[in-house]
Write a structure and sequence with these properties.
The protein is mostly beta strands. The chain has two domains: 3-127, Immunoglobulin-like (Sandwich); 131-249, Sandwich (Immunoglobulin-like), CATH 2.60.40.10. Helix content is 6%, strand content 39%. It contains one helix and 18 strands. The strands form five sheets. Strands 3, 4, 6, 7 and 8 form a five-stranded antiparallel sheet that branches. It is elongated.
């Protein structure tokens, strides 16, 4: 071998190896970066909605997978959900009150025509809401927690029910049972609160403690006067609700630069 040609031969070998790895989906490549901002935005008793940052140049699509915590992952990644446009996805048909690991990866254009590059998988966790049947002998309604935000949660009735002040209505009892570590417990901790809902367009409880954990009980009232309890169905619960924290909404923020722009305030540059 001619020693003077050795560096050139090594460069060719390294270049060939790089191209082979780039075209192999089992080997993520640096040029195909992981999706940023992956977080869940809403849950119901049977679905979880997630979002992530908009696609960068060269992105072909995103692939997503939902796996029950503790379940086998061997086959789960064989048939991922594909999102070609947009930056949201809803995992539907999930089990009630069940924890899931949610995964996403970016699929990118490759330097080799006809091939694709793949990023590493990014994982977060979420849990579906608990749906509880309210049985009034003559009909059964499933009630579940949905649309949990940093200050409220919604109720989901299945099948949908018409509510009215003198007909079917819901009486909710709820109390704050825990706050995140490091938070000062408010005076309402452990105290029961009530809300009577007689409009199906107002199936929610708001002004809740950020990051707090609540126990919720639901009783269905039927017929009679506005606050007559004699025809009430059996109370169901507890449905446990963990209110989102605003801090969690910023978990995906990266590369924050702090710069002083005034005497009394600062600006964060993302």
């Amino acid at each position: 071998m001619n020693i003077r040609n050795t560096p050139f031969i090594l460069i060719l070998l390294l270049s060939a190896r790089t191209l082979l790895l780039a075209g192999n989906p089992e080997h993520p490549v640096p040029g195909c970066s992981e999706p940023a901002g992956f977080a869940w935005t809403a849950v119901t008793h049977e679905s979880v909605t997630v979002r992530w940052d908009s696609a960068a140049a060269g992105t072909v699509r995103f692939e997503l997978v939902a796996i029950k915590k503790g379940a086998s992952t061997k086959l789960a990644f064989k048939n991922p959900a594909r999102v070609d446009t947009g930056n949201t996805h809803t995992f539907g048909g999930l089990d009630i009150n069940t924890a899931y690991d949610l995964f996403i990866r970016r699929v990118c254009q490759s330097a080799i025509p006809g091939d694709l590059d793949y990023s590493d998988w990014v994982r977060i966790s979420a849990k579906t809401a608990a749906a509880v049947p309210m049985d009034c002998s003559f009909d059964t309604t499933l009630v579940a927690i949905s649309q949990v935000t940093h200050e409220r949660f919604n109720l989901n009735l299945s099948p949908p029910r018409k509510l009215s002040p003198n007909g079917r209505r819901l009486l909710l009892r709820y109390r704050l049972t825990a706050v995140p570590p490091g938070y000062n417990p408010p005076t309402i901790l452990g105290q029961w609160q009530e809300r009577l809902i007689s409009d199906e367009n107002k199936l929610y409880v708001d002004h809740l403690y950020q990051g707090g954990t609540y126990d919720v009980y639901v009783k269905q009232l039927r017929d009679g006067s506005y606050m007559e309890y004699t025809r009430a169905c059996k109370e169901v619960g507890p449905l446990q609700v963990v209110i989102a924290s605003r801090e969690r909404d910023c978990d995906y923020a990266q590369n924050v630069t702090l710069s002083c722009t005034g005497a009394d305030f600062v600006t964060l540059h993302f």
